[in-house]
Amino acid sequence: MEKFEIYKEIIAELINTGIGKAASILNQMLNEEIEINLPTVRILDHEQFMEWEQNLNYKEGFVVVNQDFGGEFSGQGMVYFPLTNGKTLINTLMDLNDDTFDDSFSAIDLDAIGEVGNTIINSVQGTISDMVMVESKLGLPTVTVKDELVSMIDHGQMCLVGETIFRAKSACIEGVVLLVYSYENMELILRNVEFGDDF
C-alpha cells in the first residue's frame, strides 16, 4: 500500500474518532440515537476540490456551517448538507412530519443546523489538534446557504473532505465534513501521522 494511502487511512481513523465523539454529544443533547458514518475521506488541493465539487449532484445548493479556528494551528471547518438533506435533518431533529420541500430556512432552523455543525467541527478538529499537540482556538460558527463552496477556499490551501452519512430515527441524511488548512498545517498533520506512535 502506498504511503499516501496509509496516511489517508490514519487520518480517516482520526476523523472517525471525532465523529464518534460528536455523535455521543448529540445523543445526549437531543435524547435521540444519532449515528454518523464516514465512508470516504479525501485529501485535495484547491483545483482537485473544485473538480470534486463540480461532480457533486447537489444542484439545489447547500446549507453550510462554517467555523474558523486560529492559533498556531489555524484553518476552517465546514459541515454542509444539500438543501433537501438539510431540511430533512431539521424535520427529523424537531419531530416534524413534513414531506414537502421548502428551500427557506428560519432562524430556528439555522440555529439547529449550526448546533449540529458546531458539535461536529469542534469534535473533529479537537481530535486532530490533540494529535499534532497544538491548540486550536475555534471561533463562533456561521450558517449560510450557498450555491457552491470553492469560493470559500483560498488557493494554496489543502482540504480534508469526509463524506458523511447521518442517521437519526428512520432518516438517512448525506452531508460533508470539510477541514481546510494551509499547506504548512497539512504537512504538520502528515508528519505527525508518519512519526506519531499513538495510533
Automatic annotation (TrEMBL):
The keyword Transferase does not apply. Transmembrane segments: none annotated. The keyword Transmembrane does not apply. It comes from the Bacteria. GO terms for biological process: chemotaxis. Keywords: Chemotaxis. InterPro entries: CheC-like_sf, FliN/MopA/SpaO. PANTHER family: FLAGELLAR MOTOR SWITCH PROTEIN FLIN, PTHR43484. This is Chemotaxis protein CheC. It comes from Desulfobacter latus.
